[in-house]
Design brief:
heterodimer; A: mainly beta; 11 strands; 52% strand; globular; B: mainly beta; seven-stranded mixed sheet
Chain lengths: 127, 107
Amino acid sequence: QVQLVESGGGVVQPGRSLRLSCAASGFTFSSYGMHWVRQAPGEGLEWVAVTSYDGSNKYYADSVKGRFTISRDISKNTLYLQMNSLRTEDTAVYYCAKGGIDGATAKVRGMDYFDYWGQGTLVTVSS
Amino acid sequence: DIQMTQSPSTLSASVGDRVTITCRASQSISRWLAWYQQRPGKAPKFLIYDASSLESGVPSRFSGSGSGTEFTLTISSLQPDDFATYYCQQYSTYSWTFGQGTKVEIK
């Protein structure tokens, strides 16, 4: 069965960095796009970033562009989110999510939905 | 950016009720819409894609409809497990945005 397990969250001061990981299993990791989605306390869902199945295309929400970097290591079946210059408004539970459309099709069409989600990891940015 | 607006924000209902949630897009998204269910403290669960296609394993009491800018999620007979928050999400070209959510609570 598909499993996504996030790690790396914690408390960090504004301006510092943090790297989140998402270990994937139960599916062919190299065949699907992967996303990060976040949820601030008591708020709704916000898409953060996507990497295509082959890592060649990456897109970001305007709120994190230039500060966050998404990447994937196919040899380790792991997705990453490098978060730099963190702000208090980045405080949220961060979920990784698997794309539901096969990777090649999703890359060409530029669209995807999220069929499996991890349990989330909490990032708190506070002085 | 495409904005998604759900209504109502909160819905009070009883077990057995028929429930409908509406999601409107700020521009046409064809049928590129998904629905998710989120229980408190849990990750979202995928329910519907392409506006009306039910994900495998999702109970048939859930259904979706619509195209263009107006969409609905219907629960035909509300069950205790269904009290949760529901989100719509559009997935047009390299753009992903969620509605603000609709909380379905016990009347």
